[in-house]
Structure formats: structure tokens, C-alpha cells
Structure to design on (268 residues):
């Protein structure tokens, strides 16, 4: 399989600092967190503003890449399910996808609401949420 | 900046085969396309079904990674905008995010509707769309 290199463009500062502390999905109630960006990407950030809804693409650094099926929500009562039908952090390319709203912008630091990512999680990309939630 | 390796888990088969043929956003009307997966990830696919809405994460292999601001939609009348506020393929980590619905499943080949990705685009991940479009 062909491979490519992705680079961390920043990281998450969050009160969530245990693997098991992360809620499985953002809407169950996740804390505010700061996205802290590398100076090198400051020009890419320059139009992000308070109130914007964004997608945060993260690197789920604790994900197990050789796991292809899981019991959703780590609940053994749920049948073993192919990871492409789940949001498990265990998957061949452990990229996280989080929809959040910007609460504050302070230079290279951006506050977002309801982010279900652990403290220290690397950030790969930020995209605007388009109409229709895309 | 820390880097990580992502691997292509498959590729797109699409009638879109020119850089400029790709519409800028899926909802403007994109064609049906096939997602063709590597045998190695077949267990991860096993619960995807016709009618499912999924996120396709792709590798935008023609993206320029050193471009941090663009004129949206390649229209010079649009002001230069930081790429994290756009869906430009030009960005530090050129990962594409596409929301599509599954039209057919044939083993390692999955037909999806309205995919704005060029023929040959590598696929990195598939995730279910959660309620609320997340």
C-alpha cells in the first residue's frame, strides 16, 4: 500500500487526559479545549473567527492500527463491527474527525467547545463546516 | 513538527480525471464513483451497507502543501483566505473530507453517489456519519 507523510500542525490542550476519559462521541458532552498551532501555519489560520463551525482532523495517537473490528463503545454486548462503521480510534489510519465551534481566537491559540480529544492529541487539519453539515 | 505515516487503504474510480474537472464542493453535483479497497482492510468494511451515509477521507495527491492561503474557488475576485477557512486541496496535510451515500456494495468495491474526488485519489479512512451530520 502506498504511504504518505502527515505532519502535526499543532496539538490539543484539554482537561481530558486519560484514554478512558474521552467520551465516545462529542455530543455526549465534551469539554472546551484549546487548539495550539505551530507558527509555521499561522497564515492558514488567519481567517478563523469566533462563532465559526469547523472540522478538526486529529491524529488519534493511541489508536491501534491493526485492529479492523471492534465492539462499539467498548461494550461487549455490541456485536463485533468493522471499524469503518464505527468511530473507534482503532483503525488503519487513526485520523479523528471532530465538529466544533470556535469560542475564542488568541493568535496561534483557538478555543473550541465540546472537543472529545485527549490532551496532547496532534492536529492535522482544520476545515470549515459547509452548509448541510458537510 | 512531528510526522506520521498514513497508508492508502484503497482508491477512487471516477469519471473525474482532470484537476479542473473536480467541482469545488460535492453538493454542486458530482458523479457516482467506486471506492476500491485493498484486501488487507476487508474486515474493516464488513458492516458497510447500501443506504449508509459515510465520510470518505482521501489523500488529495495534487494538493500543494506549502500553500497557506488561496483565492476561494480559484476566483481572483475572492480575497486571499487562509486555507483552514477553505476546502482547497492546497493545505499542509492535503486530506479530503467527503460526505457520500452508499449505492452498492460488491465485495471490496463500494459505489457511492456524488463524490467530488478525481480518479485515482487514494483513500485513507471511512467513517459513519453520526446524527446531526457529525
Amino acid at each position: 500500500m502506498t504511504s504518505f507523510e502527515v505532519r502535526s500542525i499543532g496539538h490539543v490542550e484539554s482537561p481530558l487526559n486519560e484514554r478512558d476519559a474521552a467520551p465516545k462521541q462529542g455530543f455526549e458532552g465534551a469539554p472546551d479545549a484549546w487548539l495550539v498551532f505551530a507558527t509555521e501555519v499561522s497564515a492558514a489560520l488567519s481567517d478563523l473567527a469566533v462563532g465559526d463551525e469547523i472540522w478538526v482532523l486529529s491524529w488519534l495517537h493511541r489508536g491501534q492500527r491493526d485492529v479492523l473490528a471492534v465492539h462499539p463503545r467498548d461494550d461487549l454486548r455490541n456485536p463485533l463491527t468493522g471499524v469503518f462503521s464505527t468511530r473507534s480510534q482503532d483503525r488503519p489510519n487513526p485520523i479523528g474527525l471532530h465538529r466544533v465551534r470556535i469560542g475564542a481566537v488568541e493568535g496561534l491559540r483557538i478555543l473550541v467547545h465540546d472537543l472529545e480529544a485527549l490532551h496532547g492529541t496532534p492536529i492535522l487539519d482544520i476545515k470549515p463546516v459547509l452548509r448541510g453539515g458537510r
